[in-house]
Design a protein that fits this description.
The chain is α+β, with helices and mostly antiparallel strands. The protein is about 25% helix and about 30% strand. It has helices at about 15-20, 25-30, 35-45, 45-55, 60-65, 70-80, 90-105, 110-115, 120-130, 135-145, 175-180, 240-255, 405-410, 430-435; strands at about 115, 145-150, 160, 165, 170, 190, 195, 200-205, 215-220, 230-240, 260, 265, 270-275, 280-290, 300-310, 320-330, 335-340, 350, 355-365, 370-380, 385-400, 400-405, 425-430. Helix 4 packs parallel to helix 6, helix 7 (about 90-105) packs across helix 10 and helix 7 (about 90-105) packs parallel to helix 12 (about 240-255).
């Protein structure tokens, strides 16, 4: 009769057991250490904790060598300090590391403005000061870096037109707490950013009050028609801090936002928005300006940056000069407006092989979206009688989602991209003098977009 053999952990080889343990998360790995002496020994195996240190704390071999600790001891040390943020830390730390690496190459002076992370008790003191709990991902980010010094340019992007400039700083926690809002219309909202030139801030709602969702991030937009100053609409920029911050960092480090004069400019470029005619290529990037827009009355302000480039392989005799522009502007209701004018923002650029000319202009819509397309008319320098058109590709402009004020609607409203029925269409402000004479202000109380064609 065959003798039965009892299977025991003590007689199983270590390698298959270690392989099984390698699939466990850190909590289960700790639990296994209490099952038996054998599992306790195996669960202390250094390579098992190396994986968790790399996954959750982004620690490297050099970090381990510098601290002269085992992987398990390293994990325990970080967990005792940052354990409450273990679901957020790796994502946010990686975003910060990617951003700093990129800035170090492209605009190093911004690195100097970053502040060291705060301690846990400092965050607790801020919560006691404002009387609200801070979301874990926000706290985690500020353990890594406490925003930046109040400097220009700001970390969270810039925008410039002829007589308008915006640059947003990422506020440190103390400054943000000083700007915590309790007034009607912005109750329990914490500023995340601030612009010295415009006073613009992006806020995070710490509670679900006044029609806002908890932790969503927005630009506040006062109702230009309301007598009640608490009637504040919102352009939504993020559902929660991690999404808001990491999506911005991704756009920066992948080149989605251009670096111009050592600043991050928040222009969005559609890779398909490029047109080549002969030797000349035209590409367009766009941006929405919330500080110059309003939901009520409907007035949505966009800026666009155009790059005109002549191929370096073009023949010298093909050198030419821009004479005029033509725009076909269509709003979300399908209403079309055609605009013609001399030059671009008061200039008549000469294009030669390898030459690049860039300029920024702006337009307004009374609908939440619209598109523009057209052409430039050039003449050859060698023979002025040779006149030809260069295509400007169609480019779309869409405002971010917005929520209307509960003061006006009487109840919490859903985020919307409403297309307003308005007879007015849009305004092309390529004319330099028009832009200089106040084309950047809010619309008149009539609710119609200003027309300066």
């Amino acid at each position: 009769m065959a003798t039965s053999t009892e299977l025991s952990l003590e007689i199983l080889p270590s390698d298959p057991l270690l392989l099984i343990l390698s699939f466990l998360d850190f909590k289960d790995l700790i639990s296994c250490s209490y099952v038996s002496r054998r599992l306790q020994e195996l669960s202390n195996h250094n390579p098992l904790w190396k994986r968790h240190c790399q996954k959750h704390w982004l620690l490297s071999e050099s970090d381990k060598a510098q601290r002269n600790q085992s992987w398990k001891d390293l994990f325990r040390e970080f967990y005792s300090d940052l354990g409450r943020y273990i679901e957020h830390y790796a994502t946010l730390k990686r975003a910060w590391d990617d951003l700093k690496r990129y800035l170090d190459q492209e605009c190093p002076r911004m690195i100097v403005s970053l502040k060291d992370g705060v301690k846990e008790d400092e965050l607790n003191a801020i919560e006691a000061q404002i009387g609200c709990k801070l979301p874990h991902d926000y706290r985690c980010s500020f353990r890594i870096h406490n925003g930046q010094k109040l400097v220009v340019p700001g970390l969270m992007g810039s925008m410039a037109l002829s007589n308008h400039y915006r640059s947003e700083d990422l506020l440190d926690i103390e400054t943000a707490a000083g700007g915590f809002q309790q007034r009607k219309g912005l109750r329990q909202c914490l500023p995340l950013t601030f612009c010295f030139h415009t006073g613009l801030s992006q806020y995070m709602a710490l509670e679900s009050v006044e029609g806002r969702h908890r932790y969503e991030i927005f630009y506040h937009c006062p109702d230009q028609m309301a007598r009640d100053p608490s009637a504040i609409d919102m352009f939504i920029t993020g559902s929660y801090f991690t999404e808001w911050f990491t999506s911005y960092v991704h756009s920066v480090v992948t080149g989605g936002y251009p670096i111009i004069r050592d600043q991050i400019f928040r222009y969005v470029h559609d890779k398909e928005c490029v047109a080549t005619t002969g030797d000349i290529t035209v590409s367009v990037s766009t941006s929405f300006l919330p500080e110059l827009s309003s939901v009520h009355p409907p007035h949505f302000f966009f800026t666009y940056r155009i790059r005109i480039e002549m191929s370096k392989d073009a023949l010298p005799e093909n050198a030419c000069q821009l004479d005029s522009r033509y725009w076909k502007i269509t709003n979300a209701n399908g209403n079309v407006e055609e605009v013609q004018g001399p030059g671009v923002v008061g200039e008549f650029p000469v294009m030669q092989p390898g030459k690049v000319h860039e300029y920024a202009s702006c337009t307004t819509f009374s609908t939440t979206s619209g598109h523009m397309e057209g052409h430039y008319t050039f003449h050859q320098l060698k023979n002025k009688e040779v006149v030809f058109n260069i295509t400007i590709p169609r480019f779309h402009m869409v405002c971010p989602p917005f929520r209307k004020s509960v003061v006006r609607t009487g109840s919490a409203s859903d985020v919307s991209h409403t297309s307003w029925n308005d007879e007015e269409n849009s305004t092309d402000t390529d004319d330099y003098e028009d832009a200089e004479q106040g084309g950047l202000g809010f619309p008149a109380p009539s609710g119609h977009c200003p027309r300066r064609i």
